[in-house]
Amino acid sequence: MARQELDEANEAVKELQCLLIKSLLPKDDADERDCILEVRAGTGGEEASLFAMDLFKMYERYSLKKGWKFEVVDIMESDLKGCKEASGAISGPGAYGILKFESGIHRVQRVPVTEKSGRVHTSAVSVAILPQADEVL
Description:
Mean pLDDT: 89
Radius of gyration: 20 Å
């Protein structure tokens, strides 16, 4: 019984240590802002543009699921219903703070719908999450 209480206490200590470390990190002033999402197809040709559209729609659905407002700003479509570039505005409490770590290069390896012989293709897409700028007066 004492061993069980000790294990539970150790788990509680670990959780409290994590909370303490998070509370000591400086808060980013931009975390509560709205944000701009930019998705660009990279290497991989037409498959990369299909992957870019998949990611853009995924972020749109995620935003709506979180109760945020998602507005498509621009989409430059490719031949097979993919997109070479897409951007959207996401408005909601803490949107930038939650999405800011999504920025970077995203890679996929899959057999694309454009492939006839079943080979695996690698494609890359760049994602940029930018905080909404303050209005300039």
